[in-house]
Every structure is written in C-alpha cells, then in structure tokens.
Amino acid sequence: MIVGAGFSGIGAAIRLRQEGHRDVLVLEKGPQLGGTWRDNTYPGCACDVPSTLYSYSFTPNTAWTRVFAGQQEIHAYLRTTAERYGLGDVLRCGVRVLRARWDPAAGRWWLETSDGSYSAAVLVLATGPWHVPRRLEVPGIEEFAGPVLHTARWDHGVDLTGRRVAVVGSGASAIQVLPAIQSRAAAVHLFQRTAPWVLPKPDLAIPTAFNRCLDRLPGARRALRAGQYGIQEGLGCALRHPELARLVEAGARAHLRLAVRDRRLRQALTPDYRLGCKRLLTSSTYYRALARPHIHLHPTAVTAVREKEIIGADGTVARADILVTATGFRVGELPLARSLHGADGRTLQAVWGDEPQAYLGTSVSGFPNLFLLLGPNLLGGSTSAISVLEAQLTYLAAALAHLERGGHAALDVRPAAQAAYNTVVQEALRTTVYNSGGCTSYYLSPGGRNIFAWPWSTGRLVRRLSRFDPDAYAWDTPAGPTCLPVPAAPQCGDRAIPANGEQP
After folding, report:
1. Does residue 394 carry a pLDDT above 50?
2. For a FRET experiment, which of 222, 265, 344, 436 has its CA 20 to 30 Å from that of 169?
3. Structural element, H or E, at residue 247
4. Terminal CA-to-CA distance of the chain, rounded, Å?
5. Are 364 and 413 in contact, with CB atoms under 8 Å apart?
6. Shared fold status for 2-132+330-476 and 141-325
7. Which strands make up the sheet holding 340-341, listed edge to edge?
8. Contact call for residues 283 and 175 (beta carbons, < 8 A)
9. Residue 409: helix, strand or coil by DSSP?
10. Mean pLDDT of all residues belonging to the chain
11. How far apart are the C-alpha atoms of 377 and 174, rounded to whole Å?
C-alpha cells in the first residue's frame, strides 16, 4: 500500500511493479494525482531545480519548455508518466487514510480509510514534506474583510486587478508570487520577517529546436543532466562548508546591488546570517519587482490583522483588500503521524515528538514494514528531491527482495542501528551552514535538532542507499496466508488518469 500520489508515490508504484510486485495499490486523498504540484497553483509557481534534473531518470522529459519548469508543465509530466506506466488500475483518488495500525499477530498493516478498510503487508508513506500548509496565526485574521489566500490553496476566482494586496512571507513561494502578481495589483505590501539570500535564476525558454538537437546527439541529454547535477552539487558543497558559502554570498550580494539601486531598500534586503542557513532561493525577477514604485517592503513580522489592515511588529500599518499568506509548510509534520500506530500501539507522533528521525530517512524502529519516502535528514539546500527519491526506491526494492527471499513476514530496524546512524548524522551536521549559519529555519526542530538536511553529498547518499544491510533489521517469520484488496475500478476524477492537463 502506497499513500500519496505525488512524485514519490508515482515513482514507488512504477518501481515496485517493475520489480515484479503486482499487488500494489496507491491511495490518494486528492481528486487527482500530482501532490504538491497539484496543490500549488499560485501565479508564478515553478521549480527551483533545473528541469533536466526534475524528472525520473528512467523517463526523462525531452520536451521541457523552460530551464526551470513551471507548475502546469510538471503536473502534466506526472500525469503523462503515470498513464505511460499504466497506473490507472492501481490508483484510487479521493480516498483519505484515517488511521493505520500494525497487527503483530497477522504481520500486516490495517488501514481505515474513507473508502473502507484495507490491509497490506507493506506500507509506503509518500506524503512528502511539503504537504501541510503553515497558516498565519495572528489575532484578527479571521475578521479580515477580504479574501485570504494561502499560496498552497490559491483561489483563481479572486481577481487581483487594481486591488491592494498584502503578501506575508519571504520564502520560496513569496519570491515567485510577488513578481507574478505585481503588474495587476494597484499596490503590493510585502511583509518580510527575515531577508532571504537570493541567487539569479537563468530561467530561459528552451527552443523546440534545442530539444531536437539533444535527441539527435547521442549522450547529449545525459551530459546536460550531468553538468547541471555538478552545478547543484557545487552549491551543496558550499552549504556544507561555511568558508565556501562566503564565495556564493559574494555573488548573491552582487545580484542584489545590480537589481536594487536604493540603498535603504538594499539594506533591508540583505540577510544577517550565512547563505544556506535557510533554504537557498533563486530568482531574477524578485528584486526588480521590489524596486517598483507601487511595491512596498515592510521588513517586519505581522503581529495582527484588522478589517482591512495588516499590522507589523514595528508598528507598520498597511491597508489591503486581499491577503496572501506565503507562509510555507509544516515540513516536520508527517500528515499521518498522529494516527499511525506501531508494534507497541504508540503513534508515530508519540514516538517522535517534535523531532522526527529514521534510519536512512526510510525506516523507523517499532514500525515494521513501514517505509518513508523523502523522510527525515535526506534532503539538502540544492539537492534534487528526485535523485534522493530514486535512491530510496532502490533501497525499498532491495528490502522487499530480502523479505521474499528469506520467507519473512516483517522487518523492523533495530533501535541501536537507528540511534547510531542518527548520532553520526547529527554530528556531521554540526559544522554545516544548516546548523551553524546563525538563523532559525524549518530545517530545525523547536529543540534545535536538524530534522531535514543530509550532511554529505548526494553521491554519498545514493551509494549508501544502494547497499541494503539486513543486519540493521530484526526479521519476523510469517504468521499465515495474506491477501490485499483490489479496487473494483480506478477512481481519479472522471477518468483514471487524464493526460492532457485539464482538470478532471
């Protein structure tokens, strides 16, 4: 059973079927597949990883139209890929998992869903870290006399033309949505609690002729992917070594100076922490938008909202007709953690508290046959999540192969193996920019533990996940015959998997 049908869930279903596992079922709570690329439709939404790296290596998209693909194009790629691999017969949309528990006697997971009960030998959580929107929680926000839009829940029926818009946030979604809406709005007030580091983004259109040339030249597309991978890894190396981060900072400062001539505005946009301490952002339009006369930067947090006023911590008052909250996601919160019960009956939330941890970001002790995709401490400030995902899928395939070859019913990572692994990871993170850069970020738990970042190169991650170590796990023997419910018919909108991009 796979929960979630974004990049992770679709990739897992394809890989497991390729490995010969035919009894695979994917449950998706939304009306169609796509995950974060289905939910985030705000103006300007796009990837900040080069398009060539942001597709499955086994099914590269040979027709990207931009160096950094937009939301609609990425969503269409996912839908087309799912259709190409025939996932319509195993995908159930509109099915919400309410709770799941491990049954030690049966050696199975039992799931209660909005579509009834299911059981499964193996449970794969592909719900992703960018899933639960972080709401703006300040006094008076419920009384705001106008539309309140979160970037992950955008309402395209709200017309911004000629309106005063307040945008709260200065992270990845804010620097994309601001340039996209500024030409329509009469005025935009951006509330920035912390200035981000922003590198230029060479987001160029890709001519059709260029894609044709890549297709005709043997190895050209692989070479381009390798070159872009090398650039991303170079940035990642700087984030792991603070002394190298200073070199990248110089480029970011030059980018700011060239785009913003006003000294006071430039000072407000200059971060006071090491580059990479927070998520590294890229944009060649954000600074230019902020320099326009009808865009107003308020370098302060929002502390309250009145009927049509946004109140800053420094006393700033901005009048607005529409409030956009670009406040990101609760990255450390796994959606099912509070309703997922392990071998001893405790929930994953009770075991984790505010500090998620797993063995290789994939297995959690006390939760047999559970696999997390893009789990704790696997990603980085410049890493393509698809590279990490595919490495995890290799590990998942190897784990299931060991289960079958050994005739086992379950595997459960040993507590000592998980603890030893996480000790090494946290020690390695101590000297990285993620931990020592002098900021507060979603990489860190409330207690200060880094729950997000991988402290080494992506290459090392891929090599580590390519080796499955059975000695790190305890193994159980079968309790008896098992079965898995098969859906009567695929349910993903009006059709199994629409391929042409329209809403089902």
Report:
1. yes
2. 436
3. helix 242-259
4. 24
5. yes
6. yes
7. 116-120, 108-113, 97-103, 340-341
8. yes
9. coil
10. 92
11. 25
Cα 424 to Cα 120, 359, 382, 444, 451, distances in angstroms: 33, 11, 21, 17, 13
Take residue 424 and report the two structure tokens written for it: 């090494």
Give the per-residue pLDDT at 498.
36
DSSP secondary structure code for residue 429 in this structure: H
Separation of alpha carbons 298 and 313, rounded Å: 10
Q: Which residue shows structure tokens 């300007």?
A: 44
Handedness of CA 248, 250, 254, 257 (dihedral sign): positive
Fill in the DSSP letter of residue 143. G
DSSP E strands, 76-159: 91-93, 97-103, 108-113, 116-120, 123-125, 148-150
Residue 338 DSSP label: G
Q: Print the SS3 string covering 278-321.
A: CCCEECCCHHHHHCCCCEEEECCCEEEEECCEEEECCCCEEECC
* Interval 87-99 mean pLDDT: 96
Separation between Cα atoms, residue 14 and residue 394, nearest integer Å: 12
Q: Quick one: pLDDT at residue 497?
A: 42
Interval 46-66: pLDDT, tens = 999 999 999 999 999 999 999
Fold of the domain spanning 141-325? FAD/NAD(P)-binding domain (3.50.50)
In this structure, what are the phi and psi dihedrals at residue 398, rounded to the nearest 5 degrees?
-65, -40
If we measure between CA atoms, which residue out of 236, 233, 199, 231 comes closest to residue 433? 236
**What is the Cα–Cα distance from 324 to 303, expressed in whole angstroms?**
15
Task: Kindly tell me if the per-residue pLDDT of 488 is higher than 70.
Answer: no
Rounded to whole angstroms, how far apart are CA atoms 374 and 452?
Answer: 9
What is the C-alpha separation between 412 and 151, in angstroms, rounded?
Answer: 38
CA distance 354 to 338: 12
**What's 471's DSSP letter?**
G
Of 7-11, 67-71, 222-226, least confident by mean pLDDT is 222-226
pTM of this prediction exceeds 0.85: yes
Residue type, 82: A
DSSP string over 362-376: TB-TT-TTEEESS-T
Q: What is the mean pLDDT of residues 132-139?
A: 92
CATH number of 2-132+330-476: 3.50.50.60
Six token digits for residue 220: 């050209």
Domain coordinates in residue numbering, the chain: 2-132+330-476, 141-325
Amino acid at site 444 = L
Task: Order the strands of the 148-150 sheet from edge to edge.
Answer: 148-150, 322-325, 164-168, 187-191, 295-298
- Lowest model confidence (mean pLDDT) among 141-150, 207-216, 359-368, 420-429: 207-216
- Tokens encoding 429: 């993170």
Q: CA 326, CA 312: separation in Å to the nearest integer?
A: 16
Report which residue type is found at 427. E
CA distance 464 to 194: 36
